[in-house]
Every structure is written in structure tokens, then in C-alpha cells.
Amino acid sequence: MVQKAKILLVDDRPENLLALEAILSALDQTLVRASSGEEALKALLTDDFAVILLDVQMPGMDGFETAAHIKRRERTRDIPIIFLTAINHGPHHTFRGYAAGAVDYISKPFDPWVLRAKVSVFVELYMKNCQLREQASLLRLQLEGSEKDTGESKESAGLLAELSARLAAVEEQAEALTKQLNDESTDAAAVATAAHLERKLTGLRRALDALDPGTGSASSVSSQN
Questions:
Q1: Is the CB of residue 43 less than 8 Å from the CB of residue 8?
Q2: Beta strands in the chain (DSSP E)
Q3: What are phi and psi of 47, to 5 degrees?
Q4: Quick one: which of 170, 169, 158, 165 has its CA closest to 213?
Q5: pLDDT tens-digit readout, 80-126
Q6: What is the pTM of this model?
Q7: How far apart are CA 49 and CA 77, in angstroms?
């Protein structure tokens, strides 16, 4: 059974956290509350999250400062951040959010369906990344022991090719998602989301190619797709 992804909800107002939980409960993932930036950073020390929904206006450490801390940490710098704000101060305020590392910036009140759809994109990407990492780890172990027997080597090469094919399928889905985002909107949020997907998949492809013992199976599958 695939483990559920964790989504971090950061807001100093309990009613806002309750509303976010109601909107995102349909995704059937694990929702984790944090009532301050400090509490969010503590949660990030021990758990892995698919995406962070971060309120901008909070007493003490605000959303921008919290995001800066998240992006400075090696463990958490690649976690997508969606800023939520009840106040729109214009383009400068929005650009500050993107400069802080946000992949999206949504003003309240927001459309529940839109927010849920945006979050689901990152949850899906996170789940696929987890599955691929697990398969890559298993393959690495098999490849290390494959030198003992030619038959095992052939089996490992076959498994490597299968993993490459699965990654190619994910790449194809990401390409379709990027096209959909570009077709539906030309705003900075769509561009940032597409760029994030591309960086993630490029890293996975490089990691998979590094596992290739020289047969060229991973590269050949990728080029065919």
C-alpha cells in the first residue's frame, strides 16, 4: 500500500486551518496543522511533505520569513510552497512571494476547487517521486550483486529498463500537464509550477541514468519516449 502524502497547513487562525482541512480532505492525504512559522519549521525537521500551504500574514515570523528558512535548509528547499494571503498589496507583494520561493500565490477568499486542484498536482508528483526512489533503491541493490551471475545481470538490466519506461511515462504526463498549464494560463504561477515539475523529473532521469551499468537501456527507453 502506498503511504499517504503529508500536506503542511500553516496559519495562525484556527478557523482558517479548519477551512483548509475541509477543502483538502477530499484528496485523502495526511493534513498536518501548524499555527505559526516556528511550529511549521519544527514539523519540517522530522517529516517529509508534498506541499506547504503558508499564510503570509502571521504574528511574529510571517510567511515570507518562514519560507526563507525553509528554502535555506537542504532537507526542505525543494518542497513546493503555496502562499495564501487575505491582503493583496499589488504586483510588488506578489513578486515578493515568488522571490521567497513560492510556486503559487493565492489571495483569499479563494476558489476551493482551484486550490484543491493545485495541491493535487504536487501531491501526485510527490507520490510518483517516492515510488521511483524506492524502485531505484531496490534496483541499485540488485545491480550491486548482479556481477555474481550473468542471469542476475540480465534480470537487473530488465528491471532497469522497466523503471526507465515508468519514468518515461511520468515524463510524458508532466509534459502534458505543462502544456495544459500553459494553455489555461500564462501567469507566473503556471510557469513556476511547470518549471518545478521539469526540475524534479530531470533530477530523477539523471539519477536513473547513473544506475545504468553501461548497457544504455535507460537512455534508449528515454529517447524512444
A1: yes
A2: 6-10, 30-34, 51-55, 81-85, 104-107
A3: -120, 155
A4: 158
A5: 999 988 766 556 666 666 677 778 888 888 889 999 999 998 998 88
A6: 0.66
A7: 11
